[in-house]
Design goal:
This protein is of the alpha/beta class. 36% of the residues lie in helices and 15% in strands.
Length: 383
């Protein structure tokens, strides 16, 4: 069942490991050196322009036209005349709009036929749900045929209300034709949270009128440490299989992480699996090496059921892989970190039928210690 493109190679913020994040130079290098998907980050400015930035604050990455430090909250700041003049600290690249990204992407696809290039849009939790409408409007402004975008755009959501909004607002009903849609991934730091999103698919199947389009979750994008557990293998992977959901994992930057996800994807026969990496070139080399080994017969081809193998489905139908002591330890430590983060699925997300306020911006007060730990680990490429 796994697609021939698996593992899909996704460039994290373009090619974050070697080039400034979320810049056209990094995006070009991602596609040129083996990635087929670019993961990037969206924020809606106060004048309803979608801009490309990982952080809501401009402080870490951007300076003004005079090279002075900035600290704008993008959601509270207009693109014109403020944000449009900002440049990256590293390389002096512009803070650009989503529409500019789409124009570049369409030109790139037109100039490089034969490959299935995609954009994965990381829609941050502090965005209002209406950003989904702005996204579709920008897509159609660059290419008016919305069906052209179906296999080229992936929504990455941290908030179920965005998916609920896609189903509730009539604006989207004529945008999804004959059951076709964009991929919608839940970006998650814990597979247990993603179960709630999967349950929303069941809810849609049970409650959506036959004459109304339903936009469903098609995949989950998990932080890799969350997948290093027996519970993930025996409880969550079967849910992916039941609904033919894709599995991506982030941020994968070494061969051990790459090989582990590949084993999960192959053994579970997932419809598609992908690695989100700071170094898509390196991941593509691993993929090519894997393909060469399998073609020559020297690769590890593990059958789904084989009693003498370490990797197989047991008599209960559970996928089992040998997890190393290091994996189990890191996963346990990560669970302790999750205790600092606290509850992640809000009350309004739990209520599938609750009406979404498209303008609401969540007020979240993150644990300062948890934020510092996460950002520090990201700086060293661990998350």
């Amino acid at each position: 069942m796994s697609s021939s493109s698996s593992p899909v190679i996704v460039g994290h913020r373009g090619f974050k490991g070697k080039f400034p994040e979320n810049t056209f130079v990094g995006f070009n290098k991602c596609f040129e050196l083996g990635g087929t998907v670019i993961e990037t980050d969206l924020w809606l400015s106060s004048d309803n322009v979608i801009v490309i930035s990982h952080d809501q604050s401009t402080k870490r990455v951007f300076v003004d036209k005079d090279g002075k430090e900035t600290n704008y909250n993008i959601s509270l700041t207009p693109y014109d005349p403020v944000l449009k003049n900002l440049k990256t600290i590293e390389g002096n690249y512009p803070l650009f709009t989503f529409r500019e990204l789409l124009t570049w992407f369409k030109n790139y696809v037109d100039e490089h036929p034969g490959k299935e290039y995609k954009l994965e849009l990381d829609i941050k939790r502090l965005n209002p749900a209406k950003i989904a409408k702005n996204i579709v409007e920008d897509l159609q402004s660059v290419h008016s045929d919305i069906t052209w975008w179906y296999d080229k755009i992936q929504f990455g959501i941290w908030d179920l209300n965005v998916l609920k909004y896609l189903n509730q607002d009539d604006f989207f009903q004529d945008k999804f034709i004959n059951g076709q849609q964009f991929d919608v991934f839940h970006i998650s730091v814990n597979w247990r949270d993603s179960i709630h999103y999967i349950n929303y698919n069941f809810y849609l199947d049970e409650t959506t009128p036959v004459d109304r389009a339903k936009i469903k979750l098609t995949g989950v994008s998990l932080i890799y440490i969350s997948t290093w557990s027996t519970g993930f293998l025996t409880k969550f992977v079967p849910l992916l299989r039941i609904q033919d959901l894709k599995l991506y994992s982030w941020t994968i930057n070494n061969k051990f992480q790459f090989d582990y996800l590949s084993k999960v994807g192959k053994l579970a026969d997932l419809v598609e699996y992908g690695v989100i990496s700071d170094d898509p070139e390196l991941m593509n080399k691993y993929k090519e090496q894997q393909q060469q080994e399998e073609a020559s017969g020297s690769g590890e081809l593990v059958p789904l059921i084989k009693s003498e193998s370490k990797h197989y489905y047991n008599e209960n139908g559970d996928l089992t892989l040998d997890l190393t002591f290091q994996q189990r330890l890191f996963h346990w430590l990560y669970l302790q970190f999750n205790l600092l983060v606290g509850k992640r699925v809000s009350v309004d997300e739990q209520q599938f039928a609750a009406k979404v306020d498209e303008n609401k911006i969540r007020e979240i007060k993150p644990n300062g210690i948890a934020v510092w730990i996460f950002q520090t680990l990201q700086k060293f490429g661990i998350f």
